[in-house]
Design brief:
By secondary structure, this protein is mainly α. The protein is built from 5 helices and no strands.
Amino acid sequence: MSIEPDTIRLLRECDAGIKMGVSAIDEVLDYVHDDELRRQLQSNKKDHEVLKVELQAALDRFGDDGKEPNIMAKGMSWMKTNMKLVMDESDEMVADLITDGCNMGVKSLTKYLNQYKAADEDSKRIAKKLIQLEEQLALEMRKFL
């Protein structure tokens, strides 16, 4: 098994994950009422964007463009989010949707981390950092559920 293909694949999945996370936060921000919830979401979004810069530098080293989130997954997420928020514009619903997204992200990224065992340490570190960001946000959402 070659290091480079696994490294690129893992970085691409992290790229798609970061894009999906930022997009999910952007989708719910207009529905947030609580200032603390808004600050936490914006702070986590900023952390995702900082990690994206690091990730992009890693992708650039391999001359790779990264990966867009799966169009079906993104579309289904958008529909679920908007349908639920139209019926219930509460901070609890926002926290619930974000928690679900974080849990799916952690699950997917952990699966990719296990799948692409030959990836280099730098890409694994980025993936673990992203998993940590998602876990942290899910924890922060608990007080709003």
